[in-house]
C-alpha cells in the first residue's frame, strides 16, 4: 500500500523530518521494498510453487478461499481476501501480479522481466492486457484449477488504476509533472515538512528547462 501515494507525488529527492533522519526518501524506500519482494520470492522460505526471480509480489487482495490442503505431503492453509506481505507475511502462495507494473518506476530492471516471465509461464493470468487481483500457482492442476492454479476472476479498479498511473509515470512522468506544477500540492508538501529536491526548483517545467 506504500506505493499508492507515489502514483501522484514524485517523492524522489524530497524529504520530511522522518526521512531526513534516515538519510533517505520515500522513493528509495519503495525501491528497496520492491527488491525485498523479489529477494523474498527467490529465497522462498515457505516453499511455495513458482516463487523465484521472475515471480514475486505480495499485496492485499483476493485469495483462493479459506481452506486447508495437503500438497506434496505438506499441509497448507489458504486464505480468501488478506493483506499479504513480505517478508513477515501472511503468505499463502498468492501472487499479486499487478504489483510488477505498480512498482515499475521504482525498479524497471526487475519489474519488466517479471512481467515477461508472467506472460511466458502463466499466459492465462494475463487476460486482454489486464492482470487479476491475484493468482496462486501452488494450486496448479488441483481442486479443478488450471495449470497456473487459482486465478482471481476480479479486476478491481484499485489495482488497474495504479497500474495505468505508474506505467505513465515510468513512460513520460505525466502525472508527476502535473502534480509538481500545482502550487497547492507544493504548498501542502511544504506544510507537511517536505523540502529539497524538486521542491527547491521553479514550479513551471519551462522555467526548469531554462
**What gross morphology would you assign?**
elongated
Number of strands: 6
In DSSP terms (H or I, runs of 4 or more residues), the helix count works out at 8
Describe the largest sheet. Answer: 2 strands, antiparallel
Helix content: 25-40%
Instruction: Say what oligomer this is.
Output: single chain
Output the structural class. Answer: mainly alpha
Radius of gyration from the CA trace? Answer: 19 Å
Strand content: 5-15%
Order of helices and strands: HHEEEEHHEEHHHH
| Poorly predicted residue ranges | none
> What is the spatial order of strands in the main beta sheet?
1-4
Features:
210 residues, mainly alpha, two-stranded antiparallel sheet, two-stranded antiparallel ribbon, 8 helices, 6 strands, 37% helix, 9% strand, elongated
Written overview of the protein:
- Strand 2 (about 65-70) and strand 3 form a beta hairpin.
- The longest helix is centred in the first third of the chain and has 18 residues, at about 25-45.
- The chain has a two-stranded antiparallel sheet with strand order 1-4. Strands 2-3 form a two-stranded antiparallel sheet. Strands 5-6 form a two-stranded antiparallel ribbon.
- The chain has a domain at about 25-170.
- The mean pLDDT is about 95.
- The protein contains 8 helices and 6 strands.
- About 35% of the residues lie in helices and about 10% in strands.
- It is mostly helical.
Amino acid at each position: 500500500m506504500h506505493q499508492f501515494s507515489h502514483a501522484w507525488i514524485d517523492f524522489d529527492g524530497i524529504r520530511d523530518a522522518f526521512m531526513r533522519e534516515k538519510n533517505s526518501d520515500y522513493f528509495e524506500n519503495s525501491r528497496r521494498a520492491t527488491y525485498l519482494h523479489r529477494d523474498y520470492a527467490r529465497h522462498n522460505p515457505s516453499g511455495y510453487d513458482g516463487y523465484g526471480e521472475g515471480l514475486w509480489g505480495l499485496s492485499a487482495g483476493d485469495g483462493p478461499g479459506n481452506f486447508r490442503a495437503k500438497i506434496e505431503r505438506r499441509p497448507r492453509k489458504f486464505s480468501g481476501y488478506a493483506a499479504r506481505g513480505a517478508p513477515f507475511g501472511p503468505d499463502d502462495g498468492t501472487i499479486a501480479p499487478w504489483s510488477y507494473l505498480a512498482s515499475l518506476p521504482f525498479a524497471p530492471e526487475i519489474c519488466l522481466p517479471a512481467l515477461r516471465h508472467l506472460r511466458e509461464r502463466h499466459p492465462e493470468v494475463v487476460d486482454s492486457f489486464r492482470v487479476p487481483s491475484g493468482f496462486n500457482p501452488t494450486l496448479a492442476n488441483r481442486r479443478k484449477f488450471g495449470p497456473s492454479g487459482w486465478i482471481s476472476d476480479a479486476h478491481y479498479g484499485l489495482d488497474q488504476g495504479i497500474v495505468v498511473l505508474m506505467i505513465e509515470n515510468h513512460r513520460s512522468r505525466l502525472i508527476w509533472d502535473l502534480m509538481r506544477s500545482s502550487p497547492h500540492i507544493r504548498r501542502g508538501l511544504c506544510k507537511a515538512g517536505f523540502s529539497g529536491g524538486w521542491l527547491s526548483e521553479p514550479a513551471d517545467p519551462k522555467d526548469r528547462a531554462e
